[in-house]
TrEMBL record:
One of its GO terms (cellular component) is cytoplasm. Keywords: Amino-acid biosynthesis, Histidine biosynthesis, Hydrolase. This is Histidinol-phosphatase. One of its GO terms (molecular function) is histidinol-phosphatase activity. Pfam families: PHP (PF02811).
Length: 316
């Protein structure tokens, strides 16, 4: 339900969209959600790796809307071409860097998509998943925002990180309450470059209250939390979200979907068997996706984890 290609995310991913779909079919996928990144609205929102694509940052930014149009056209072509072999869903991954910019853009793009993934990659407008250096910039910004002692350059503090996590989940709440995305992407991405990615987040009461609040909101409108196995390939011990969050969501009766957040063929289905085992260990028996009814409209569909596992042809 969450994937990217080098064709439409140059500098960020690899391989063509069609080759990724062909590979997915070859390893047993029955459904794949295409979710290229939405266009950004400001040069400041671009990642450093994107600047090589054009002579100026402004030129890079200008390429993004027409590329999204090209992505939609190619996705529709591939959906028809491979319709007898796989269900292709056409979506995009959202941003919430500045709600006043991204809310209307998400709304305009959603009308032509099957769904979108509600994700945060920035906090206080600073990328928190690019590298440790940028993450620490966000830590310092959070400390300053809260009037706390600002850590020295290249350093962090428990107090400042706690503030950053709280702000991250507040910004996520803004996204959830405004846009109500059906799929919520890498719910706790904020922990990727943190000083203690495995920290039990119940130890930060303010953070945990926000997590429970956000989960309750997602449940209230029947959103789906993705079990995102990209955390495992990035060196974390558990997928997104980590266990105490996953257990809380499961106790609520919340629905799960499943993703590799792949950025090319080499990452398709990476750690899927580990991810499915993780879900089963906390009592999850099925994951959710979309199919199409006879009228062509999307219908929600639960898939038993054992059926899912049995369909995959993996060497893990």
């Amino acid at each position: 339900m969450h994937s990217h290609s080098g064709q439409f995310c140059p500098g960020h991913a690899k391989d063509t969209l069609e080759s990724i779909i062909q590979h997915a079919i070859s390893i047993g996928y029955k459904t794949i959600g295409l979710t290229e990144h939405m266009p950004r609205t400001s040069v400041s929102d671009l990642y450093p790796e994107e600047f090589a694509e054009a002579p100026t940052p402004e030129a890079v930014l200008a390429l993004q809307p027409p590329r999204h149009e090209a992505y939609l056209a190619e996705a529709i072509r591939l959906r028809e071409k491979y319709s007898s072999q796989i269900t292709i869903l056409i979506g995009f991954e959202g941003e919430w860097i500045r709600p006043e910019d991204y809310s209307p853009l998400i709304q305009s793009l959603s009308g032509r998509a099957d769904y979108f993934i509600g994700s945060l990659h920035h906090t206080l407008t600073i990328p928190i998943d690019y590298d440790r250096t940028m993450y620490l910039q966000a830590v310092c910004a959070a400390a300053k925002h809260r009037g706390l002692p600002v850590p020295s350059e290249g350093e962090s503090s428990d107090e400042a990180e706690e503030a950053l996590f709280e702000i991250y989940f507040d910004e996520q709440f803004s996204l959830l309450s405004t846009m109500r995305p059906k799929v919520i992407g890498h719910f706790d991405l904020i922990r990727l470059f943190s000083s203690s990615p495995g920290r039990n987040l119940t130890s930060w009461p303010g953070v945990w209250r926000r997590i429970e609040r956000n989960l309750a909101l997602i449940k209230s409108y029947d959103g789906w939390l993705e079990c995102n196995t990209s955390a495992l390939r990035k060196g974390l011990e558990e997928p997104y979200p980590k266990r105490e969050i996953a257990e809380a969501w499961t106790r609520m009766g919340g629905k799960w979907t499943f993703s590799d957040d792949s950025h090319g063929i080499g990452q398709v289905a990476t750690n899927y068997l580990r991810g499915l085992k993780y879900l089963q260990a906390i009592g999850v028996g099925e994951v959710w996706t979309f199919g199409r009814g006879e009228d062509g409209k999307l219908v929600e569909r639960g898939v038993e984890i054992e059926e899912f596992r049995g369909s995959l042809r993996l060497g893990e």
